[in-house]
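Hi everyone,

Forwarding the result from last night's run.
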Amino acid sequence: MKKLITGGAASLIAVGGLAFGVVPAQAATTDANVCTPSDAYTETIAHPAVGEQTITVANPAYVAPVEEVSHVVHHDAVGSETIVVDNPDYVPAVPPTDEVPAVGEPTVEVTVDNPDYVAPTYTPGYWQHVDAVYTPAVGDKTITVPNPDYVPATPGTPEVPEQSHIVHHDAEYVHHDAVTHTEYHFAKFTETRSGKKVHGDVQYGDWSAWTEWSPETHTSWQLTTDPLGQPEFHASWTEGYGKDKVYYERYWQARFDGQTKTVTDKDAWDEKVKDAWDEKVIDQAYVPAVPGTPAVGEPTKVIDNPDYIPASYVAAHDEWVPPVYTPPVGAPTIVVTQDNPDYVPAIPATPGSPAVGEPTITVANPEYVAAWDETVIDVQASDAIGEPTITIDNPAYIAAFDEIVDHAAVTCDVPAVVTPAKTTAKTRSLTVAQPKVEESAENTLAETGGDAALQIGLAVAGGGALAVGGLAIAASMGATRRSRRQNR
């Protein structure tokens, strides 16, 4: 079983060491009558940290992930996959038949009453008495109508003299605007290209854009914007040396630089197109006198009335009415041909035909539901929340620290013994080893309290013994000094 050394025990061990370390420095001696002086010095005791600054513990807020728990429920199929139905395309077989002869004739002749027949009629003659009848005249014997040959008289018209007035017209002019034209200013433009020698020949690149070079060198006004003539050589030069040498060529040409001006060829003027004149305006033209004419004939004339019916009188008398005979129209009956109601037409023999297809067909059942397995989730899966452990500050952690112990100088009243020279002040570092602290789920401080107390007691006892020994040496040196003083 492992034993645990607690932090308290370690502290006691450190205390025991400190008890030894804080003893004032004494001179080293070879016998009781020799004093060895020593310089003061400072001793640094480094105490290492106890435990870790942070520890990893279980996270109380951690929720472990949950795996999905499910089971499978089997569902049987519903219905059959196929069903048998009537075949819509099925044509049943037709058996052959023998010929059946016709019964009777299709039509027969029958005698019927003639619907158009008119029987003859006879009305015997007789004497009919006729009363006297007087019929008065209708209209007038003559009538007055307009005379188509009549020409009415016309009255004469007096003479109408001419009436007019004079309208004066000023001279007429047409205004003409000034006649102008546009001129375009030309200046000297240049284009440049550069190249390098390739296999002894200069290979030039594309020409640059035309750039205005010197308006004063070449300036003129032209009627169009077309460049003047062909580009002319201007200059060539080189820049650089060796493989970096660049060859340049420049050409110039007079080109339009964007400036324009308007030149007047003829000032504006007014052109006289018609002199002033006086116009006679006729208000009333001259109308000569027209003499009148007499009427020709009469406006109306009397003629016989074509619609006139004179009066008449017929005396009473007996008048013979002759007999009237109307012959018959058509025959009383006629023979007509009509369909024979008893006729049965012949039925020709038929060869028959075989059936087409099958009476029923097997098709997929639309209501069929195939068997299936359903996964039923009993426990829904979930992800973990947080981390299983967290890092927190260690409440048992003791940070490392340095303990400074000052040692006083040792002086002697007797002549000093010659000793090797040493530094007037020195600093020493002493590291106190800490016991290793182990943790176990089985061993606790309560279980090992007795053993830990025993170890602590030993450490304290050891430290105490060292301290007592130191004090005894100091007391002995003090007694020696007092003895020497008394002898003097």
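Helices lie at 7-21, 449-487.

Cheers,
N.
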